[in-house]
Structures are given as structure tokens and as C-alpha cells.
Design a protein that fits this description.
Helix content is 29%, strand content 23%. It folds into 3 domains: 89 residues, Arc Repressor Mutant, subunit A, CATH 1.10.10; 84 residues, SH3 type barrels; 80 residues, no CATH class. The chain is an alpha+beta fold.
Length: 296
Amino acid sequence: MVTTFKGPADIKWNTRQRLQYIEIMAFYTGVVTRSDVARSFGISDAAATKDLKLYGQMAPDNLNYVHTVFGFVPTEGFTPMFAELEPQVVLPMIAANLAASGGPNEDALLYGIPMEELPLPVRLPDRDVCAQVVRSVKQNKKLRMVYKSLSDHDEDDVRTIEPHSLVNTGLRWHVRAYNTETYDFRDFVLSRFVAADMLDEEAESSAQYDDDWVEPITLQLAPHPNLKSRKQESLLIDYRAVDGVIELDVKRALVGYLLHRLSVDTTADQSMNPNAYQLVLVNRDEIEPFAGWAFL
């Protein structure tokens, strides 16, 4: 018996998850394959092929099969049917390694635990620009972009970069990339991308050449000395300190962001308000060379 679907609402949630994944994978990385679907959902190749066939029936104008990549790529007129493709939805899914979002019980408390998050402003580019950035990371290609930097230049910067990783600081998203004009690795804030276009040129760099990315360093933190002793003791328990020191291993490239996120007093004389900056850096001399901008 042949089953006829009138629309996405007629498809069960477990199937919708896989169709949603197909859309996100195709749009954001530029290609989705049978093995992608099979691996992500723990299903057979035959079942993954069935899902891709179903998607093609539901959205016949969205994907084209390309033999050279052994997968389906989005068309120019790609229009999502199952997935919410805005960066504020997709990037947290990538960060959490989730295949789908927005289930049938999205508005219900699945665990019965009320939870609230801070209403932080959305600091992201539009989805087409974001997709070009993600595709260049995934496919190891160069990216041509128009960037709104905080420099004093009157015009936007047009740059060619070679991105290798995304970074979520908790307040904003960056892309870590090699800058072909300055010959070094830098962080670029995603919300400042005005336009982006993945080039058909292989990137010549990669994360393995980014020393500050591959080399970790240990932050040694302690309660601010100007806090009352009872508060200091509470912080040591709060952060599970060992012998009075809180140790955190972090990539050297991310040191500054972590210091900011933890509100660490980075002044040499520890002169910041201890109630607002409750931690100080024990190994300041060791850390400062890798995050000078975060020190006061």
C-alpha cells in the first residue's frame, strides 16, 4: 500500500527529525549524504536512503544529487520545510551535537523542572551568511567576506580567511580562522559578517598549524583577597578548588574569553570590586602573553 503525505504535519516525529537533519546538514554544510543520516541516527544505509527519497518527494526542488561528492547539495531556490534554519537555533544544536530540535512536546516540561535563561540579544548574521561560514569550515575552503570591524576604518573590510572552528563564548559566536592578509590566526565575530562567500579554493591552513588553538594552558584562579573569609571559603567549595586553587585547562586562544566570562579581576594590584569580580588570577604572568587584551 502506498502512503501519501499531504504535508510535513502528516509525518511522525521520529521521521521528521531525520528530515530536519537533512535540511540543516544540506543548508549549513553544503552537502548531505546517506552515510551522514545513517551515522547520526544509528540506522541502516537502506533506511537512510529511504529518508532521502522521502525528502526528495516532499521537497523536489530543494536538493540535487552530485556524483562528485556522493551526496545531495542545496539548490539556489532551497526553501526549508522541516527545520528552523536561523543561526540562533542551529548553532546551539551544532554546539550540543544535536541532530534535531523543536519536538512535539517543545512547550512541555519533559522533566517537570521549570527553567529560565537570560534574554541575551541575538548577535549573529543572517542564515545565508552564517551558512557560508559553516560550509567553509566543514569543507576546508577559503572564505571571502565583508567584515564590520571595530577599527577606525570608514569602509568595511573585505578579507579572505581560512576558517577552521566555531567558538561560542556564551555571549557571542566567533569563527577561528587564518587571515591570509596578516598571515596569522585570529578570531572573527560572526555578528560582524556583512556578507560571505565560500570560494572554490582549498584552504592552505588548518587547526593543526594554529599553535594557540592546539596548545592548552592551565588557569590558576583563587578567591579575591578582598572578599571576607567566609565568602572566600564558599567560592572554593563552589568551584571545587584543590588546595585553595581553582584550575581550568583551556586553549590558549580562548583564555581571554574565559577570564571575561568568569569575571576575573585581571589587574596587577587586584583593585577591582571584589563583589563583582570574585576571582583573581594566580598565574597572571604566565597567562597574560596569550590574552593581553583581557588584562587591565
